[in-house]
Amino acid sequence: MIRLPTRLIFAAAAVVLALSAPSDGAAQSLNFGAGGDRPIEVFADNGIEWQQDRLVFIARGNARAVRGEVTVFADELRAYYREKEGGGTDIWRLDAFGKVRIKSPQSTTHGEHAVYDVDKAVLVVTGGKPRLITKTDTITADRQLEYWEQKQMAVARGNALARRAEKRLRADVLAAYFRKDKAGKSSIHRVEAFDNVKVVTQKDTAHSERGVYNVNSGIATLIGSVRILRDRNVLNGCSAEVNLNTGISRLHSCQAPLGGGKTRVRGVIMPQKLKSKDGDAGKAN
What we know:
- The N and C termini lie far apart (64 Å).
- Helix content is 5%, strand content 56%.
- The chain is mainly beta.
- Strands 7-8-11-12-10-9 form a 6-stranded antiparallel beta barrel.
- The protein is elongated and about 75 Å long.
């Protein structure tokens, strides 16, 4: 074990902290940059190497870094530091390689590689389809998960998916924005979805080019080539509001180009008898 008395924080569990907010509305702390000079403890089965010429500590073999309630697990951990005037060290970057797991009381993040830039307060987790798991939510991304502390923003890139029970929000990119309350705690207040957006509830599936989810109201506003499907019914429009709490969807028209008035909302409603026949035919097959 080695104790590094630095201002390092690699509190990366809650990287995107459930892109749909907790159902009980509880605030989640994302203040990774706080904590003063609390030390980080590093453990490794195969020892810790100190490369003074490169200014890096390397922990190999079932490596584990612990700071407060946050633990980082990996095959290898590398802590890059600066030498401070008057003595001491200042960690400016921490890398984790292989079977990365970042655990806090609220959530666990998985990946194959993680980098935390202390100076910029930016965390990036990649590899092995990075994912974050909480008691109520699972967030996955094909490319990477990010947390931008100074911007109070978390991002999932590449076929990003946020799932809670039977509700799912999918897009090429999902971005969650946090806001502090009077007590200084942060919670998600808005989620934006970009490109190939898909919202799935217990009854409906909605597609659009972009979406904005208001956590407080539970309403997802969809914009651009909106299509809502329920059973075999299809509704098409310019924009829509989908209430994830009540399951009620409202479709809207929009202004046509060149001052041509408003475009109409279009819907195809299948008769119940036809649905029943199709269902019976499907069962017969």
